[in-house]
From TrEMBL:
Residue ranges annotated for the AB hydrolase-1 domain, each copy included: 27-134
Assigned protein family: Belongs to the GMC oxidoreductase family.
TM segment ranges: none
Protein name per UniProt: Alpha/beta fold hydrolase
GO MF terms, alphabetically ordered: hydrolase activity
Keywords: FAD, Flavoprotein, Hydrolase, Oxidoreductase
Cofactors required: FAD
Keyword Amino-acid biosynthesis: no
Length: 285
């Protein structure tokens, strides 16, 4: 891991993944979602998404932004990531590689925050963005809308964060209560973290993947790949869902209050992916 700092001084890291041969193409920054980490893109499979990028000649950099479980947990918002983390990460990778432009593959809340930064004009060096699951317009199932608007505020009164890791290791009485509720209502598998992921992030059993697409080593590997997500994030996303598009909290200067009422300040090309089976909190229409 290579350490660097966000624009507000927050410690971040980036993982430079190198293949057997030097890259023949430019840098690609890969950005994870909320409450996971850069290693999310390298499950225990013979060939991963990262391997495919390397085999195609790309110079691959995996970002651990402030939502990463490899960093010290803290309350955060999409605004902070957009204004402080992603611009600093782009500058760090360009300085390390000597390139003047890069491409990005961004996932889930890494996608929302990265797209916020791009359309606000904070990422002029990024010429291509592949956005997965959600970007500017969150569209959620009714169950998810109920959970984020009604359940999350109740949880937020007693807990500063929620963690899918509580499926294996609940911390404190309130966490044990949440984990017990999930055990009673989610019986789709015996993996406690998998069941907590469905409660935390969406609707369905399971919410974020199909068990038919997971072999047992990968299903077990999930146990170590999810941890704290602050309730500050869910509060902001509740406002975004109600508005029908991403909105800023107003705590960070340089970001517009809305990201859809003005022309994007970027020349980057965007590719948007959100499959019809996407049942997480945030599915792009």
């Amino acid at each position: 891991m290579r350490p660097f700092t966000a624009r507000d001084g927050r410690p971040l890291t980036v993982v430079h993944v190198q293949g057997r041969h030097p890259p023949t193409r430019g840098p690609v920054l890969v950005v994870h979602g909320a409450g996971v980490r850069a290693e999310l893109f390298r499950p225990p499979l013979p060939r991963t998404f990262v391997d495919a990028l390397i085999d195609a000649g790309w110079d691959v950099w995996l970002l651990n932004w402030r939502a990463s479980i490899d960093l010290d947990p803290m309350p955060w918002t999409l605004d902070q990531a957009a204004a402080h983390d992603h611009p600093a990460a782009v500058e760090h990778v360009l300085a390390a590689t000597g390139a003047d432009r890069l491409k990005a593959v961004v996932h889930c809340q890494g996608s929302t925050s990265f797209v916020m930064a791009a359309v606000a004009g904070l990422l002029p060096q990024v010429d291509t963005v592949v956005s997965n699951a959600v970007s500017l317009h969150p569209v959620v199932p009714a169950v998810s809308r109920f959970k984020i608007s009604k359940v999350a505020p109740v949880v937020g009164r007693v807990l500063p964060h929620i963690s899918p890791a509580w499926g294996d290791r609940p911390e404190g009485f309130a966490a044990r209560c949440v984990a017990g509720f999930v055990r009673a209502t989610h019986r789709e598998c015996r993996n406690g973290v998998c069941r907590m992921v469905s409660f935390t992030y969406g609707s369905g059993r399971p919410a974020l993947w199909s068990h038919a697409n997971l072999d047992e080593p990968t299903h077990d590997w999930i146990r170590g790949e999810f941890a704290e997500v602050p309730m500050t994030f869910f509060a902001q996303m509740d406002a975004c869902v109600r508005a029908g598009h991403l909105v800023a909290t107003g705590e960070v200067e340089g970001l517009p209050p809305s990201f859809t009422d003005r022309a994007p300040r970027t020349d980057a090309r965007f590719a948007l992916f959100a499959g019809e089976d996407n049942r997480c909190f945030l599915a792009e229409s």
